[in-house]
Amino acid sequence: MGVKWIKSLVIGAGVLVITTPALADKAADAVDYRQGIMTAIGWNIGPMGAMVKGKIPFDATRFAFLAGRSAMLAPMASEGFSVDSKQAKSHAKATLWDNKEDFDKRMKEFVGATTKLAEVAKSGDEAAMKKEFGNTVHSCKGCHDKYQVKD
What we know:
By secondary structure, the protein is mostly helical. Helices cover 77% and strands 0% of the residues. The chain contains 5 helices and no strands. The chain has helices spanning 3-52, 60-77, 94-98, 100-121, 126-147.
């Protein structure tokens, strides 16, 4: 074994030691990011749901505002489902990574649903808004049922 080989081995081990935590942090950051976006989406979906269920008075202007924000946030969520976050502790089922193409399709459908909800909400038509909200929530639920670990 030459000195050059040993030196390369030591440098390689050092790089591994230095980058492993960085990769772990990147994975944890991705999970934190996607959970933050999902929390923000829920923060906006919740009051719309309360309006639809009659738990709070229906306010078309507020509903449209919340729908618009949901549509803005929805495309950001999929960014946090990077492959490097596959092994990180999260609420994502392992089957998500085995079926990433289906998951990505569902996320795209969710983005479309929130976009349509925001468009319909601009009309102020309460019945149409409620109907489209149901479609949006159905999109959420389908993905959560298939790919989210229930606590």
